[in-house]
Amino acid sequence: MESSQNTAGTPGSGGGNGMIVPPHSNDASPVDSTAVDDSKHNLNQVTNSIQKTLGILHQLYLTVFSFNVASQAPLLQRQNNMVLELDNMSKLAEKCNIQVPMEVLNLIDEGKNPDEFTRDVLNNCIAKNQITKVKTDAFKVFRKSLLEELDQAFPDEVEAYREIRASSSSEANCFGQVQSMQWRFQG
Length: 187
Fold this sequence. Notes:
By secondary structure, the protein is mainly alpha-helical. It is 72% helix and 2% strand.
């Protein structure tokens, strides 16, 4: 069976540290789901080709390890299969647009686990999220205390502000509901 066949349901396919980038279109319409499906299909084909190449490499290793004169023909056949599969993988990879961060490639070159990069990025995101949450909470406390002090000094103006704020909030909610309904009808 050729590597471009039987791509559905392959364990370990369609994942990894890369990001699938759908092809860009010239029109302003949202990305078509078929483009994403094609990207996933192409990625599955490349994954299958990589798995097939690893199998051929294993066969080559076994053939070379136990090499004798009689195993020269199978060795040449496996070498030819390797070249053909690498060519096939190269052609399939041209259809994929996968962006891998340089830090991941550097970690692999250093012999480290690329999952370390993912862990570090996730930990940095959590730390930044906590900092942002603290800032947001501080602004909420500041806003509340400011409104309390303003209410004591300028009660009429604060009441007018709260009325304006309530009416603009209700208008924004109505506008959001209308947009949500329009989006549902378009989809």
